[in-house]
What does this fold into?
Amino acid sequence: MPITVVVVDDQELMRMGLNMVLEAQDDIEVVGEASDGAAAVEAVTRLAPTVVLMDIRMPGIDGVAATRTITESGSEARVLVMTTFDLDDNVLGALRAGASGFLLKDTPPEDLISAIRSVAAGDAVVSPKVTKRLLSRFVAQSESIADASVLDALTGREREVLVHLATGLSNAEIAAVLHLSEATIKTHIGRILTKLGVRDRVQAVVLAYETGLVRPGS
It folds into this structure.
């Protein structure tokens, strides 16, 4: 089965370029496109794509609001937001809204394809270090801090893994620090996601900061 994609951008030329890159892949099929957030939500509801490439800055309903609507609807579509600047404050809003990561609009085609395949496989494509940098800049200013009691469901080891994950370590690096196998770390992360009720690693990292488990600069 191909990876189905809906492309969302208010610039027609950008949509055309993305479509050309994606349709050149045997395992990816562009099934729809939209020029604003409202049309994006409608397209996702109607087409049930695997991945949504979502522009953040659009007239009317923007990419952040559209992402929130899609994820809260229970859709299984994974959202990759696209932005011009990696420290765009709207990126954090999109991650909080449930996006599985973000890409810069000047991302090389091969990296775009790799990102879509990763997200389709259930992984997040934002590097933990980039996520940490975003959160360090914006979470300290946030007024909406999550209830830390949500972390009570985690074991001591799972909390430890989450802290390392949120501070920017990869699975291999966490395994080395804790003297465990990568497979064990992957299992721990899977349990963390389930217990916290989050979609992927990015959402877990956001929650770790918003509950105060990890603080900016730590």
Observations:
- Residues 21 and 109 are 7 Å apart (CA to CA).
- Strands lie at 3-8, 28-34, 51-55, 78-83, 101-104.
- The chain has two domains: 3-125, 143-210.
- DSSP finds ten helices and five strands in the chain.
